[in-house]
């Protein structure tokens, strides 16, 4: 049967505390060495005893090199988080601006549709009326242009149909003349033979 789990709390007896520190420190240094060898990881371990004595372990590279990498990473991470927070602030501000713009456009659209006019004063109503008149002029102008284009297209088709009709009439007349000429020619030949 295995050992039970040790409850973690400060060891009150000073001698027992020192013995436990020494044993656990050795175990921790051993584990740091094992993880560096097994996983090819750079490890730096710094331990200060209760009396202030320094114990350290670093892999093949020096402690200064590992701590330098840590500082560079930490400062870069802090700068990234700071810029990310600034960016989030900018996005929030942009979101608020776009939301206000959308609300203004929605309100304007409702006013143009004749809805929610109660909140408008006389000046705003006159501006709305002016906008509607301008819009109506544009709509009428576009409608007239479409109608003129449609009329021009119909006139062009009518002219083409008239020309086609005239050509067909000419062909019919030519056929009738040819038939009449053949009839007359056959009539004279038949009369002369008798």
From TrEMBL:
PROSITE patterns associated with the record: K_BOX, MADS_BOX_1, MADS_BOX_2
Gene Ontology molecular functions: DNA-binding transcription factor activity, RNA polymerase II-specific; protein dimerization activity; RNA polymerase II cis-regulatory region sequence-specific DNA binding
Pfam family membership, one: K-box
Keywords attached to this entry: DNA-binding, Membrane, Nucleus, Transcription, Transcription regulation, Transmembrane, Transmembrane helix
Cellular component, GO annotation: nucleus
Places the protein is found: Nucleus
GO BP, sorted A to Z: positive regulation of transcription by RNA polymerase II; regulation of transcription by RNA polymerase II
Ranges annotated as spanning the membrane: 172-193
CDD domains according to UniProt: MADS_MEF2_like
The MADS-box domain, residue ranges: 1-61
Tree of life domain: Eukaryota
Domain K-box: 88-178
Chief location: nucleus
Name of this protein: (wild Malaysian banana) hypothetical protein
Organism in which the protein naturally occurs: Musa acuminata subsp. malaccensis (Wild banana)
């Amino acid at each position: 049967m295995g050992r039970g789990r040790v409850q973690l709390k400060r060891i009150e007896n000073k001698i027992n505390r020192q013995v436990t520190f020494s044993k656990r420190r050795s175990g921790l240094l051993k584990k740091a060495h094992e993880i560096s060898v097994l996983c090819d990881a750079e490890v730096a371990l710094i331990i200060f005893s209760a009396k202030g004595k320094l114990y350290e372990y670093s892999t093949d590279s020096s402690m200064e090199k590992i701590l330098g990498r840590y500082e560079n990473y930490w400062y870069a991470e802090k700068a990234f988080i700071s810029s990310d927070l600034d960016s989030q602030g900018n996005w929030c501000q942009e979101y608020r601006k776009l939301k206000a713009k959308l609300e203004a456009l929605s309100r304007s659209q409702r006013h143009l549709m004749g809805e929610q006019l109660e909140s408008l004063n006389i000046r705003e109503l006159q501006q709305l009326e002016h906008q509607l008149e301008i819009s109506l002029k544009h709509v009428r102008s576009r409608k007239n242009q479409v109608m003129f284009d449609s009329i021009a297209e119909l006139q062009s088709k009518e002219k083409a149909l008239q020309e086609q009709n005239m050509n067909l009439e000419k062909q019919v007349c030519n056929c009738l003349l040819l038939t009449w000429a053949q009839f007359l020619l056959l009539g004279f030949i038949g009369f002369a033979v008798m």
